[in-house]
Every structure is written in structure tokens, then in C-alpha cells.
Amino acid sequence: MTASASLPPLLETQGLSKSFGALVVADSIDLTLRPGARHALIGPNGAGKTTFVNLVTGTLQPTAGRILMGGEEVTGLSPEARVRKGVGRTFQINSLFNRLSVLENVAIAVSERDGFAGRIFRARKAERRAFEEAYAILEGIGIGMEALRPVAEIAYGRQRLVEIAIALALKPKVLLLDEPAAGIPSAESHVVLDVVEALPPDIAVLIIEHDMALVFRLASRITVLVQGAILVEGTPQEIAHDPKVKEVYLGEKSH
Predict the structure, then answer these.
(1) At 161, is the secondary structure helix, strand, or coil?
(2) DSSP three-state, residue 137
(3) Helix or strand or coil: residue 240?
(4) How many angstroms separate the CA atoms of 218 and 74, rounded?
(5) pLDDT digit string, tens, across residues 176-222
(6) By the 8 A CB rule, do 158 and 112 touch?
């Protein structure tokens, strides 16, 4: 048992469910993330992984169940309010401002967090502070040298790191990484892995990823989702040797 196992959960879902008519896309999902968690959510395409993230972030409202952060229910809060509570996320497909510099992208996130978005380029003190913090974040994840380059001119793998930098600019307590290595050649996925491994140890990280080598190296706990419901949860070793997992998920990689 890790030291974090005795700490109160940063994020907890209780019986979280979502349906569209007769179609159930999330079925009574119970998941707990404590400080320092490195937890992976895996499953076949269509299993409901991104739906779960959308429920947690508030872009979808559940049909039933509760979401708690630090013991406080946030189920009815807006996405913006949840960000203020400490939820940060990245997306399967990046949503960066390609014509702006890497530094500007991250500085905008800082300004949104501090409530002066739209005034960042007009308020000198706010602008300077936002850019200084943005650069420190980029340096912290090893891409400070890209700061002044337009996003469109940097490698796609680096763009994924910019997304993580933007999420970190929101000072999250819980960081949801939705396929951070998507579109990156497997030989280069270590770049994302190295950054995630170096994240502050008090942040709880939930990673959704199809690259199983990355998942098994990063996660200390794995939840397997199938048809919107949890099939099994356990350590990487338990998941790797679970016959149900091999049948419904890991086994599909062999064909």
C-alpha cells in the first residue's frame, strides 16, 4: 500500500452513469483518485473512456451518480467551476492556437485561470506575469526552447506536450490525459511518458491511452472499461494476467 492510499480522495465517482435513451454509455462507474495517483483507464474503442472524462469535467451531465472532489460534490457544477476546483484535462485531438507561439498558448491559459482572459495583451503587469509563469511551465517539462515558435511549426509530439503545459497552467489537482500519445509514433511516445513521470507528485493523474507499453510503464493502477462498465481494476501485473482482460481487450491486439 502506498502512502497516498491513506489520503482522502481528490476525485471520486460513485455510481456514475450516463444513457442516451436505451443506449448506456456509462454504467455505475466507481473510481477513486488520491493524491499522487498514476491511474490508467483502458478498454476497447467505444468502451466509454472519453465519455467518463467528459462526465468528470462537466461537458456531459450524468443520468445518475455523483462526482466528488476533496469530499465535496461537484456533480452539478459547470466545466469552468470544476477547473477552478482543480480539474485539468487534455484532449484526444489537440485544440491549440496554431498561429500563436507556444508561449502565447500557455500564457492564455494562465490568464484564463486568473480571470483576466481577453486583457492579457493590454495589461502590462498581468501580461508579464502570465508569460513568466508560462515560460517556467514550458521549461519544467523540457520544451522551453520551443517557446517562441508558432505551434504550427513544431513537431506533433511537442504539440501534445504543449497541451499538457496548458493543463498544468490551470494548476490542477487532478489531471485527465485523454490519449496524450495519440498521433505520436510509438518510438517517440517516451517523450510524453517522461513528462508525465516528472509531474508534481501530489497531482493525481488519470491517463486514457491505447499504447499499452506506455500504460504499463506509467500506471500503478489500471481500470478496464468495457461497454461503459468496469470489467476489472488492479495493478498492472494483475491486469496483464487477468483472463477476462486478455479476452476482451489485450487479446484484440494480437490480430
Answers:
(1) helix
(2) helix
(3) helix
(4) 28
(5) 998 888 888 777 777 888 888 888 889 999 999 888 888 998 999 99
(6) no
Average pLDDT over residues 125-150: 91
Nearest to 151 by CA among 96, 91, 188: 96
**Do 106 and 97 meet the contact criterion of CB atoms below 8 Å apart?**
no
Distance CA 219, CA 66 (A): 25
The cell numbers describing 76, all together, are: 452539478
Please name every residue paired with 175 in a beta bridge, in sequence order, or none if there are none. Answer: 88, 205
163 vs 170: CA distance, rounded Å: 11
Look at 36-50, 145-159, 171-185, 232-246 and tell me which has the smallest mean pLDDT: 171-185
Cell numbers placing 94: 489537440
- 64-69 and 38-42 strand pairing: unpaired
Report the run of H or E that residue 24 belongs to, with start and end. Answer: strand 23-33
Axis-axis angle for helices 102-114, 156-169 (nearest 10): 20
98 three-state secondary structure: coil
Find, among 212, 151, 200, the residue nearest to 175 by Cα: 200
40 contacts 223 by C-beta, under 8 angstroms: yes
d(CA 19, CA 31): 18
Mark 29-44 as b/e (b = at least 16 C-beta within 10 Å).
bebbbbbbbbbbbbbe
